[in-house]
Amino acid sequence: MAILAHYKLTIQIHAYQRYKTMSGRYAPSPSGPLHLGNLRTALIAWLQARLAPMPFILRMEDLDLPRVKSGSSEQIIADLHWLGLDWDEGPDVCGPAAPYNQSARTSYYQQAFDQLLDKGVIYPCYCSRKDIQQAASAPHSHEHGPIYPGTCRDPQVRAEMEQRHPDKAAAWRYRVPARTITFEDQVVGSVSQTLNREVGDFVIKRADALFAYQLAVVVDDGMMGITDVVRGADLLDSTARQIELFEALGYPVPNFWHVPLMVDEAGARLSKRDGADSLELWRQQGKSAEAVIGHLAFTIGLIDEAQSLSAHELLQGLTLDGLRRSLIAATPP
Known about the structure:
The chain is of the alpha/beta class and 333 residues long. The protein has helices at residues 2-19, 36-51, 72-83, 106-119, 129-134, 155-164, 195-199, 213-223, 239-249, 279-284, 289-299, 311-315, 320-330; strands spanning 24-26, 56-58, 122-125, 140-141, 145-146, 171-174, 180-185, 189-194, 202-205, 228-232, 255-259. The protein folds into 2 domains: 2-111 and 213-330, HUPs (Rossmann fold, 3-Layer(aba) Sandwich), CATH 3.40.50.620; 121-205, Alpha-Beta Complex (Glutamyl-tRNA Synthetase, domain 3), CATH 3.90.800.
């Protein structure tokens, strides 16, 4: 059955990759209204795709259904259209890579999961968060907590952990090799990460049976023929493990553009949770779409002073290299 699923997945991948050779995308999570930082990343992704030029895809990353807020997808689409951004494929536009909502793509993630299972590179894990934190050998990363020490890699130890937690469903982890992945980010420059020391065996299917972001985003980008991933710098740490998955699943590795995050006056990252600078707030203040675009462009150094202009007016006279140089200049050292 897994071999048949792998065959079907391979056929679809090859069929779609014959359709086009380059694509960009913007993939928001519909967990609330977009703040200005989200919108700035959307604008940069749109500019990059239009300047390349290449088709631009909108994809909703709504796989984590408990975090999805009703009506958010529709509001995101409306907000992006209000700003003057458009896309060639997406939830509201027919395209060959449909569906464009992750929640409708779980069969593809299952096929990829089966492919990795056939290769013997994933295994069930019964460790609790407390087990991982208490493991004496577990090194710690500064931002993401303890790195999984590989406890359930050993079948005998795994059986003991299963007995210790009889009511716990297994998560599934990817067995990372002792490998250093180096890639050239279009904005940040050269980045290296050693998977076994800095990442550890990571989850690709959660204990609640939801496929993890790391697997879903790779399958989606691979099947949709995405060649340029423009996203916030907060996701830079995920890139090495995603490159490992791209290669394990037989997809070409895209170019990555990790763009600087927008911060508030105190230097803190904007957050959906605190309602930071939502577009609705700017609308209530009577600001036009052109005023918002001009503000976003100014904060990233694309124009010398804040002014009102449309997304298409901003596009005129801008080059791909000029966009890249502005992003590099705006990236903190």
